[in-house]
Specification:
Radius of gyration of chain A: 20 Å
Radius of gyration of chain B: 23 Å
Number of domains of chain A: 1
CATH superfamily of the largest domain in chain B: P-loop containing nucleotide triphosphate hydrolases
CATH topology of the largest domain in chain B: Rossmann fold
Order of helices and strands of chain A: HHHHHHHHHH
Number of strands of chain A: 0
Order of helices and strands of chain B: EEEHEHEHHHEHEHEEEHEEHEH
Oligomer: heterodimer
Largest sheet of chain B: 6 strands, mixed
Helix content of chain B: 25-40%
Chain lengths: 272, 308
């Protein structure tokens, strides 16, 4: 079992994809933190064309710990698209290049292969989480300090949000793992899963929020659960977000169902 | 390790059947492969060789029947890479990963160290190239890398699917010597091929299949070969008549005469008595190849549905 996990990590770090992704994760953390720190505090959503309208809810200033958390996690929804892709490729590239044959020859009990993939992806999620925080807290924190505010006004909730960011990136890679198995063509799997997470789900969230029966469903969408989990300020609608731990449980459930269904399929499928 | 029963590697395929939808790729196939011998697993493309190997390795689930190695199914082996080394298609590498790193990934689960990886790269003759990304490898290098991967855990059973594909004549000679050497150590070796000529000088035994069914199993020397001699003379029709009159079966083919049997002295004597000159008289060498086509080419054995 240990060997299979080490093998999964080695597979990941012996192609060039990992550092390309690392650059992307760092930049999404740093760039969006800077933009949020400079532009967003005190903004009213009505003024930016949001759904709040004139006199709607406004973002607080940088003296508010929730605003600082929002700055540090602003790039998370971009970064998790990248780890989602990492998850798709962890299984998709094995089928595309047929290295799955030597993987299953080395570890014929396929459940072990899938457990090794889950463990390694959670580890890789932590790795990219640290890269993300280096960007967002490093560059974002300097920006906040230059503007004359404390980069860490309230250590408790901010630290929790940052720690949970590490888990968020791992869980999204597991969602990708499941998607990569359910959609056998790797390129299609990446396009569909990133397209769904980036465009389709936010659109569904907006549409559901417009109807009375849809409103209670919105917080349970994976994107909304993620923002609730890290405690980002939500001004886009009058939907009540989940508490951080409920958000975490919902995201864990998505990851478990997708990775679980994918693993079941992988165990049963012939490798021809 | 040598007293581990899993390492006493007899391969046994018993009433194995695999259906893909309506196509029966492997049909009630039974044969065995003995340790210390090299067995050729032969059949035309689409005969079911690869599907059989994949069932033997637990990659494809049989519809019915069993395939075992040392009495165990592959998925029940506790350390599979130390029992069975397999090289299926030689294209199964990530193009962005170096050959050496590909082997190091395999070494992580085989429980062998990086030194063993480098030894195997040395053995198959690609120590320097293995540090480049596998996307740039030639077919011959891929074959050698796949073989290095199969040998990594020093297994007692080797299953190689078309290992000579893409090797140059020198590479094929090298492979033959290596397999001879390994078989001398008592390893069980099964190599598949769609060409008998390719493995004729390498194998001790043959298992011939066509359309998923067993055609023949046995020592290659036991194959019933129909010996044929070729004769050329100035008056072909007269010599055919003389040979036929002496009780030999002779037919004219493209200006020369094909005579059943390998009694060259008798053919020469008959020609002398008939007063005819002989320009060429030899026993044909490629009889096995002809036999192979006869065995696998019957209408009933031809795979008309294509390979899965």
């Amino acid at each position: 079992m240990g060997g299979a996990i080490i093998a999964e990590f080695r597979k990941f770090f012996t192609t060039r994809m990992w550092w390309g992704m690392a650059i992307g994760v760092f930049l999404s953390g740093a760039a969006l933190a800077v933009v949020y720190a400079l532009v967003v505090p005190g903004l009213g959503t009505g003024a930016t064309g949001g759904t709040g309208g004139p006199g709607g809810p406004r973002f607080p200033g940088l003296d508010n710990p929730s605003m600082v958390t929002t700055v540090y996690t602003a790039g998370l929804s971009t970064a998790y698209l990248l780890t989602l892709t990492v998850g798709v490729m962890s299984i998709g590239s094995e089928y595309r290049h047929m290295t799955i044959t030597s993987t299953f020859l080395a570890t014929p009990k396929r459940v072990r292969v899938m457990v090794a993939k889950v463990v390694s992806l959670l580890g890789i999620g932590v790795f990219y989480g640290l890269v993300f925080l280096a960007g967002s807290v490093g560059v974002g924190g300097i920006t906040i300090a230059i503007k004359g505010y404390s980069p860490l006004p309230d250590a408790g909730p901010i630290t929790r949000a940052l720690a949970l960011s590490l888990l968020v990136l791992g869980l999204w890679s597991l969602i990708g793992l499941g998607a990569g198995i359910l959609i056998p063509n790797q390129v299609a799997a990446i396009l569909i899963s990133v397209g769904a997470a980036w465009i389709v789900l936010p659109l569904i969230a907006v549409l559901l929020a417009l109807v009375s029966w849809g409103k209670p469903i919105v917080p349970y969408l994976p994107s909304e659960a993620t923002t609730a989990m890290v405690g980002q300020i939500n001004t886009s609608s009058d939907v009540v977000p989940l508490s951080w731990w409920a958000g975490a449980l919902v995201l864990v459930a998505y990851a478990a169902v997708l990775a679980g269904v994918g693993s079941l399929l992988t165990v049963r499928r012939d490798v021809t | 390790m040598t007293d581990n029963p899993e390492r006493q590697g007899r391969v046994e395929v018993s009433k194995l059947t695999k259906k893909f939808g309506t196509l029966t790729a492997v049909d009630n196939l039974s044969f065995s492969v003995e340790p210390g011998r090299i067995t050729g697993f032969l059949g035309p493309n689409g005969a079911g060789k690869t599907t059989t190997l994949r069932m033997l390795l637990g990659l494809v689930r049989p519809t019915s029947g069993s395939a075992t190695i040392g009495g165990q199914s592959y998925s029940h082996l506790s350390a599979p890479q130390r029992v069975v080394g397999a090289a299926l298609e030689a294209t199964n590498f990530h193009p962005g990963r170096s050959g050496r790193d590909h082997l190091r990934v395999m070494a992580d689960t085989a429980g062998v160290d990086t030194r063993r990886v480098d030894e195997m790269l040395e053995l198959v003759g690609i120590p320097a190239a293995a540090r480049q990304r596998a996307g740039s490898y030639s077919m011959g290098m891929r074959q050698r890398l796949a073989l290095a991967g199969a040998l990594l855990g020093d297994p007692s059973v080797l299953l190689l699917d078309e290992p000579a594909n893409g090797l140059d004549p020198e590479g094929i000679r090298w492979l033959r010597m290596l397999l001879r050497h390994l078989s001398g150590q008592g390893k069980t070796i099964l190599i598949s091929s769609h060409m008998l000529a390719e493995v004729e000088q390498t194998v001790d035994d043959v298992v011939i299949i066509a359309n998923g069914r067993l055609i023949r199993q046995g020592a290659i020397t036991d194959l019933p070969t129909e010996h044929v001699a070729t004769v050329r003379t100035s008056a072909t029709a007269q010599l055919v008549a003389a040979l036929t009159a002496s009780g030999l079966s002779a037919t004219e083919v493209d200006g020369s005469i094909q005579v059943v049997g390998r009694d060259l002295v008798r053919i020469g004597d008959i020609a002398l008595r008939a007063g005819l000159p002989i320009y060429e008289l030899r026993a044909n060498e490629n009889d096995l190849e002809k036999l192979f086509f006869e065995l696998t080419g019957d209408e009933a054995n031809r795979n008309t549905e294509g390979s899965p």
